[in-house]
Design brief:
Blueprint lengths: L14 H4 L11 E4 L3 E2 L11 H14 L5 E6 L2 E6 L1 H9 L4 E6 L4 H14 L5 H15 L3 H8 L3 H8 L6 H8 L5 H7 L4 H14 L3 H13 L3 E2 L2 E2 L3 H15 L3 E6 L2 E6 L4 H12 L4
Helix pairs in contact: 2-3, 4-5, 6-7, 9-11
């Protein structure tokens, strides 16, 4: 198992300490065949917009690759650390070589550079950013304050983005696809999974603003049926709550809603079971 990265390494000094500048001695870029460059296994970006890639390819066809990519040398060529879009756009533009800076880095440093470079270039969507921050926390054991220092963001921004990982999976997918903004997603956070799905569909279908979404979520939370963080919004919620009560009490429990409230029906099948349930519900005080 690889030991945690020590705080005094390049990670603690920011991106500039990990990526050499072209005016530093021994850091001049080399022209490397694209065919010898393989992808970065730590690439945090999951989506690349084809239109943006084609636009970059058009610029590269005219001006060339103006900023070198970063690679590390491996047995069969080079492994990309930073600059995936530039490599792909150069291929699209018909180039055979790209300028590259060769830097030997440990796997953990490669992960840090790939994440930080993408975040600082605003190349990641909100969900990719959230997963990238989680990687920095998990792989490097960095605190939110330390992550904020690495990427030049406020700690509160890091915390809010990390909360997106608690969203219902289909809502996360909608944020990643650009159908929902990060603001919409934060408004949905804390609601039940069923409510998140319903609200996300409503936001997309009706084109709700973030403020409208916040107001709609507030109304749902304030309506009858919400108690101690338990929201009854659908049949699926009723089934989930019934199952939780069954596990807690060890017997069949039914929930029946009405316009002004509802009933909780707890079944028992013997005097002994009634006594057990009575003790459970009253804490044994009779």
């Amino acid at each position: 198992m690889t030991p945690p990265l020590e705080r005094h390494t390049g990670l603690g000094r920011g991106l500039g300490a990990l990526i050499p500048q072209t005016n530093q001695a021994g850091a001049a870029p080399l022209e490397i065949p694209i065919s010898r460059i393989r992808g970065n296994p730590y690439q945090p970006r999951q989506r690349v917009e084809q239109q943006a890639l084609e636009s970059l390819a058009g610029s590269i066809a005219i001006h060339g690759v103006l900023q070198p990519v970063i690679v590390t040398e491996v047995l069969d060529g080079y492994q990309l650390i930073a600059g995936e879009r530039r490599v792909r756009a150069a291929q699209l533009a018909g180039l055979d070589h790209v300028p590259a800076i060769v830097r030997q880095m440990a796997d953990r440093e490669q992960l840090a550079v790939a994440i930080v470079e993408n975040i600082q270039r605003a190349d990641l969507n909100a969900m990719e950013e959230a997963h990238a921050y989680r990687q920095l926390a998990d792989e490097f054991h960095l605190t939110q304050d330390e992550i904020a220092g690495q990427v030049g963001r406020a700690r509160s921004t890091i915390a809010n983005t990390l909360r997106l990982l608690d969203l219902e999976p289909s809502v996360q997918a909608a944020v990643g696809a650009g159908d929902l903004t990060e603001g919409h997603a934060r408004a949905l956070a804390g609601a039940s999974p069923a409510t998140q799905r319903q609200m996300a569909a409503a936001v997309v279908e009706r084109g709700l603003s973030v403020r409208q979404t916040e107001e709609l979520v507030r109304r749902l939370r304030d309506r009858p049926g919400t108690r101690s963080g338990r929201t009854i919004d659908s049949d699926a919620d009723i089934e989930r709550l019934e199952e939780e009560l069954r596990r807690a009490l060890g017997t069949k429990v039914l929930l029946a809603r009405s316009r002004k409230g509802g009933r909780i029906v707890i079944e028992y099948y013997s005097d002994e079971e009634f006594s057990r349930l009575f003790d459970r519900l009253t804490g044994g005080n009779s």
